[in-house]
Amino acid sequence: MIENIILGFEQALSLENLVWCFVGVLLGTIIGLLPGLGSATGVAILLPLTLAFDPLTALIMLAGIYHGSQYGATITAILIATPGEASSVVSTLDGYQMARKGRAGPALAISALAAFASAFVTVLLLFGLAQAFADIALGFGPVELMAIMALGLATISVFSAGNVLLGTGMCLLGVLIACIGIDMGTGVARYTFGNVDLFSGVPLVEAMIGLFAVGELLNQLDKGAPKPIRARFRDLILTKEDLKRATPSTFRGMAIGFVLGILPGAGSTLASFMSYGAEKRFSKHRKKMGTGQIEGVAGPDAATSAAANGAFVPTLALGVPGGATTAILLGAFLMYGITPGPLLFDNEPELVWGLLVSFLIGHLLLLLLNLPLAPVFAQLLRLKYGYLYPLIIFTSFVGAFAISNNMFSLLLVLVFGVIGYLLKRMNFPLAPLVLGLVIGPLFEKSLVQSSALGAGDLVGIVAASPTALVILAIAALILLGPPLFNLVRGKGLRGAGIDESALEAIQADVGAEDDAQERADAIAGSGDRVDADRRGRDDPRA
Asked: 235: number of CA atoms within 13 Å, CB side?
C-alpha cells in the first residue's frame, strides 16, 4: 500500500494536476456560494470543459469542484441562512444564529477546520480500507437501506423544537410533498393536477431556497430589518474553547458521515441531519442547540465532508454511484474509457491513487483559501440590509433558474418562500419538513424495491435480514427511549416521595447557575484581554 500511496503523490503533485486541482476547488467554492447550483449541477456544467484533458487531470478538477462547492454552500448557509446545497441546511440552525450574534468568523472557521479534519482522516481510511468498505456496502440491499431511512426519520425528535408531535407532523408533511410526481411502483402520476412540470416531483433545491432564503427574508422584513452586525475583529477569531468544544463533535460527525457515505443512496444530506441529531443527544451543550452552538456547525459539516469521501468507495470499488454527484463522475469515468469496479485498483493504479491523494491536496487548498477569509466573509454582515436583501433575492432566483432554465422553478421558490414565512411566523420547525422532503423519495424507493423482492411479503423479508432488524431496533429506541425513560423516572420519583416539578425547578436553577458561570468566565476573559491591552499600551517597548 505504501508504494501505491507514493505513486499517488507522484501523480497528484505534478504541476498540471496541482493547477487544475486549485481551479476546481476555487470554481467549486464559487458555485457553492450561488444558492441552488450545488455540486452535481456544477460538475455537470463544467464536465464538457475537461474532455480535452488527461483523464486523471480531468477527474482531479471535477473532484475539486465537488468538494469546493460544499465549502461554498456552507458559507451562505451561515451568513444569510441560504444553504447552497441540501446538505448545508443543518448549518443554518446554529451557524446562522452564531452569525447573528457576531460570531460568523468562528462559525466559518470551524466549518472549514472540521471539514478538513474529517476529509483527512477519511481519505486515510480510503487508502487502507476502500475494498473492505466496498464489500460491506455490497451487503446492503434495499431492505437494509429502507431500515437506514427509517433510522433517519427517527431522528425527527431532535428537530422538533421541544414538540415531538408537531415535528412529526411537519416531517410527514415533507414526505407528503415528496410524494408528488410519478409513483415508483405503478408509474401513475400523483398530486400533479395535470401539470407536466410536477411529473418529476417537487425539486428539493427550489423548495429549500424558498423555505430558508425567501422565507427568512420575508420574516425579517415583517419584523423590521435587524441592524447590521458590528462585531469586533477578535470576535471573529476562533478561541481555544471553540476548538475544545468542536473536537468531539467533529469526530462524531466524521464517523456518521463516512458510514452513511459508503452506502449507495444515503448521501451527505442524511449524514448531516443524523450528525446534528447525535449532537442534540451527546453534546454537553445539547440543551442550547439551535441557539448558536459551535457543535451544531462542526458535527454536520464534518459529516458532510466524510460522506462525500465515503461516496467514492462504492463508486470506485463497485461501479455504483454513492450519490448524485458521484453518479455524474461515474459517467465521466465511462467517457474517458475507464470502467470502475473491483478491477479498477489493479488495472488503473496511477489514476485511482492519484485521485485519492488529490482529495487531500484539494481539502488542504480549500482550508488555505477559506480559513484566512472567514473574517473577511463575515464582514458581509456589516452591509445594510437594504443592500443585502436584494443580493439574497437575486442570487436565490438566479440559482433556482439555473437548475432547469425553467420559470416554473421561480414560481416554486415563491410558493415555498410564502410557506416558509408562514411557518416561521407560527414558530413551526422547518428542519423536520426538509428531513421529510429528503428522506421521502429515498424511503419510497427502498420500500418499493423491498416489497418487490419479498413478492409483497414486506414483513417476511425484513425479518430475514438481521442487519435491518438491528437498525430498526435502534430507530425504535431513539423514538421511544426518551418517553419511556421519562415515564420510568417519573414513577421512580413518585415512589420515592419526590415531586417531579420540584426536581425540574432545581435542574432549571442549576442550568441558570451554569449559564451565569459561563457569562462570568467570559467577562473575566474579556477583562484579562483588556488588562493585557492596557499593559501593552503602557509598555514603552510596545
From this structure: 14
Sign of CA dihedral 5, 6, 11, 12: positive
Q: What pTM value is reported for the model?
A: 0.68
SS (H, E, C) 415-429: HHHHHHHHHHHCCCC
Say if residues 264 and 429 touch (Cβ distance below 8 Å): no
**Closest to 373 (Cα-Cα) out of 503, 508, 236, 212:** 236
CB atoms within 10 A of CB 42: 26
**Residue 423, Cα to own-chain centre: how many angstroms?**
22
Largest Cα span, the chain: 86
Q: Are 5 and 357 in contact (CB under 8 A)?
A: yes
Neighbour tally for 6: CB within 10 Å: 12
> Which three cell numbers, joined as nine digits, stand for 378?
463575515
CA distance 36 to 406: 13
CA distances from 144 to 121, 123, 313, 526 (A): 26, 25, 18, 52
Paired residues of 182 in beta bridges:
189
DSSP structural state of residue 292: S
Q: Which residues pair with 181 in a beta bridge?
A: 190
Q: Which pLDDT tens digit goes with each residue over 169-179?
A: 888 888 888 88
- Sequence ranges of the domains in the chain: 2-498, 505-542
Give alpha helix (H) positions in 139-223: 142-154, 164-178, 204-208, 215-223
Q: Could you tell me if 30 and 315 are in contact, meaning their C-beta atoms sit under 8 angstroms apart?
A: no
Nearest-angstrom CA–CA distance, 106 and 125: 28
Which residue stretches of 101-163 are H helix? 104-138, 142-154
Q: Say which amino acid occupies 384.
A: K
- Residue 267, exposed/middle/buried by CB under 10 A (0-12, 13-18, 19+)? buried
Query: What is the Rg, in whole angstroms, of the alpha carbon atoms belonging to the chain?
Result: 24
Residue type, 342: P
User: Model confidence at 458, in pLDDT bands (50, 70, 90)?
Assistant: confident
Q: How far apart are CA 38 and CA 347, in angstroms?
A: 32
Q: Decide if 25 contacts 368 (C-beta within 8 A).
A: no
DSSP-based three-state secondary structure for 298: helix
* Torsion angles phi and psi, residue 496, rounded to 5: -90, 0
Residues in contact with 455: Cβ distance below 8 Å, sequence separation at least 6, in sequence order: none
| pLDDT tens-place string over residues 342-380 | 677 777 778 888 888 888 888 888 888 877 776 667 666
And the C-alpha cell for 220?
Answer: 425579517
Contacts of 39 (CB under 8 A, 6+ apart): 28, 31, 32, 65, 66, 69, 70, 85, 325
